[in-house]
Amino acid sequence: xxxxxxxxxxxxxVTNHVVNLExxxxxxxxxxxxEKCTQCGESYYNDYTMSxxxxxxxDLKSALTIPNSITTIEQGAFSSCTKxxxxxxxxxxxxxxxxxxxxxxxxxxxxxxxxxxxxGWGAFSSCENLTSITFRRTLPPLFxxxxxxxxxxxxxxxVPAGSKSAYQKIGQLSKLDIIEISVKQNAGTCEExxxxxxxxxxxxxxxxxxxxxxFDGIEILKYLVGIESYVV
Length: 232
Description:
Elements: E1 10-20, E2 25-37, E3 43-44, H1 47-62, E4 63-65, E5 72-73, E6 86-88, E7 95-96, E8 109-112, E9 118-119, E10 132-135, E11 142-143, E12 156-160, H2 164-168, E13 177-181, E14 206-210, E15 214-216, H3 220-223, E16 228-231
Parallel strand pairs: 4-6, 5-7, 7-9, 8-10, 9-11, 10-12, 12-13
Antiparallel strand pairs: 1-2, 2-3, 2-15, 14-16
């Protein structure tokens, strides 16, 4: 078989496969087996490799792990990520800004670590499948208005033991079922506490190192939320 474009010869090789997702996010799958043209560099995958790539992309679309280097989830950072069903927020995050997760229609549960002191306007608005939120902070964060606007299925929030009355004083939370739970005061990530929601993308093939590669294609350093290499 020769290259479709330049008719050059093909050799067994590996390449990095890049997939553009919604909301300016990119997935990079590294060291993907391929046949590469010796002349123009075009890469070709067999059917098995293509199916493995599709599996990896589908899994990563639905789960997000934010690394502990992030301190602020900025305004609209994950807005309208409709495939996002779970998210792990590390204990390094101090602020979740306005509309950060608005329109994440597949999101079902969220755990807010005790490091978060402010949550902006409509941060979880229009998350129609969101049913519960766990807060690990004894003193409630400073909430923006309309936190759950058009998110009608949120009926339960979980808070640290002894903090129920403090959360009941927050107007937009007062009508929800507030349940006290016992958690580690410094809990915030899956490494620290097994109570944490699951959010790690499943393994596919051999993991070469790091965390899942999902990052903002416009401002990589600002929106970096993980790096991982897969072999399919």
